[in-house]
Structures are given as structure tokens and as C-alpha cells.
Design goal:
about 280 residues; alpha/beta; four-stranded parallel beta sheet; two-stranded parallel sheet; globular; oxidoreductase
């Protein structure tokens, strides 16, 4: 994402839990003065507020916010402890919430428009094996959060997208070990693992994200191999709805009002893409 944004003339702030990761990223990006790197634990709200202040002092108004965080755990969902649940939910969901609460007020206040990208996962779209159950819980929540956020932010000319990647060339599989080490704990394994070599390149996904922001695209699905599986999952849900039923008139009226409000809000949100396209042409 940072590469794609820099290529479009943007300033970029990168945040990571570990300084050596930031140093590596800065080196790959050329140590340009358009990049600022901040060591940050996304679960630390005070540190998040400090990051916002340092960002504003260095680059001014924030226009694009990417809450790109993901950790998992090893215990199956039916055997997981409170610690397992708290760890994953605090980082994945709590870290995303902290990013929103910290940065959205300024983005809304400056009135210049913008965009938010929240990273979910294909594990936030389809069922997953037991070992990824808590991770999927957090990523389903982020998907639902972004659906609602898109409607709420549209009046401020701020779009919202949810990124749902599949296998990607990152070190996400070792994130739990790194987090525990950074917090003074013992890693479950000391084995050094490389990025997921079979995954899609981060450069390719970064370009896909940048184009999705430009087009105000709600769902970002880089991995086409999931299409049939998602379709089958949604077909199963649709088949579970009754087709022969009666509904109370008051209930019908209430649902029609809700559906109308949602449709109107979606129309405003979707129209931001038309505005952005017109601005690019001008």
C-alpha cells in the first residue's frame, strides 16, 4: 500500500509494533522524506493518539486511513482460553476501533474528503477451520463494521472499503510470536519463518487497494479463487430463507422504513465514486 500511495504522490505514515520492521520498510521505500515510520502498538490508545498528533504535525490533514492489522492464535475455537480471545480481539478488532476513534474526527473536521480501508480477510467472508475461528470472528466483525461505517461517513465525503485478502506474502503467521516477544512474553516457537511464499505479492495487493480507493469500491477481493466458494456460501444462506410466510403489517412497515433509509444512505456513499471520477478527469 505504501508503495502504491507514494507512486500517486501521497505522503505516507507507516506504523508497526517492531522497529526492525519499520527500518526494513524505510529501506525498501528509499528513505524518502515523504515517509514517516512510527513504532506503535495498536492496542495502546495513548500511543495511537500520539501517532495522530505526530502525523498531523509532520504532514497535516489525513485523507486515507488504512487499519491493516491481523494476528491469530493456535488453539481451536472450542478450546481457546480467555487469553486467546482477548489477544486476537484486542489487536484485530480493538486496534481497528482505536484507529477509527483516533483519526476519524480530524478527517471529518477538515472537510476535504477521504477514505478508510479496514483489513478483514476471506476468513471474514466464509467459514474457516477451528484453528482460525477466533481470527474469523474478529474479521467478520470488521467486515460488518465497514459496511455500517461507509454509510455513516458518506455525508463527510469519506469513503470506506473492506479489504478481504486470501493468502499473501506477509509475515502474518508469525505475528503472535512477535507480539508476545514485544510484550515481554515467550514466543510459542522460536523458529524463524519467512513470508508466505505461495501468496499473492504485497505489491499487487497494494495497487488493487489504491485503485479501489480511487473508485470508492466497498469490497476489495484481490483473490479470484474464492469466488465460487463465496457464491456457494451465500447461496446456502439464501436457500435458508422462507419463501411462504406471513408478516404483520406493522413489522412490514418498519422493515420498509429501515430498508429505505439504508438504500438512501448507500446511494450517497456510492455516489462518492462518481465525484472522485469527475475530479480525476478535471
Amino acid at each position: 500500500m505504501a508503495r502504491a500511495f507514494l507512486a500517486r504522490g501521497m505522503n505516507v505514515v507507516l506504523a508497526d509494533l517492531l522497529q526492525n520492521h519499520l527500518d526494513e520498510a524505510a529501506g525498501e521505500l528509499g528513505h524518502t522524506n515523504r515517509v514517516m515510520c512510527l513504532q506503535l502498538d495498536v492496542t495502546d490508545r495513548a500511543a495511537m493518539a500520539d501517532a495522530q498528533q505526530r502525523t498531523a504535525a509532520t504532514f497535516g490533514n489525513v485523507h486515507v486511513l488504512c487499519n491493516n492489522v491481523g494476528v491469530s492464535q493456535r488453539n481451536p475455537i472450542d478450546e481457546a482460553s480467555y487469553e486467546d480471545w482477548d489477544y486476537v480481539m484486542d489487536v484485530n478488532l480493538g486496534g481497528t476501533i482505536n484507529g477509527l476513534i483516533t483519526f476519524l474526527p480530524g478527517m471529518k473536521a477538515h472537510g476535504e474528503g477521504g477514505h478508510v480501508v479496514n483489513t478483514s480477510s476471506m476468513a471474514g467472508m466464509i467459514p474457516v477451520p477451528a484453528f482460525a475461528g477466533i481470527y474469523a470472528t474478529s474479521k467478520f466483525a470488521i467486515r460488518g463494521m465497514t459496511d455500517a461505517l461507509r454509510l455513516a461517513l458518506a455525508p463527510y465525503r469519506i469513503g470506506a472499503s473492506v479489504l478481504c485478502p486470501g493468502m499473501t506474502q506477509t509475515r502474518a503467521m508469525t505475528a503472535g510470536d512477535l507480539y508476545r516477544k514485544a510484550h515481554g512474553g515467550e514466543a510459542v516457537s522460536s523458529e524463524k519463518r519467512d513470508p508466505i511464499e505461495a501468496g499473492m505479492s504485497t505489491a499487487e495487493i497494494g495497487e488493487i487497494v489504491a485503485r479501489a480507493i480511487e473508485d470508492n469500491q466497498l469490497y476489495i477481493f484481490p483473490h479470484g479463487e474464492f469466488r465460487d466458494e463465496v457464491a456457494a456460501y451465500f447461496d446456502e444462506m439464501l436457500a435458508a430463507f422462507p419463501t411462504d410466510y406471513e408478516i404483520d403489517d406493522r413489522r412490514r412497515e418498519g422493515e420498509l422504513r429501515r430498508a429505505k433509509m439504508t438504500a438512501e444512505a448507500r446511494a450517497v456513499a456510492d455516489a462518492l465514486g462518481d465525484v472522485a471520477d469527475g475530479e480525476r478527469r478535471s
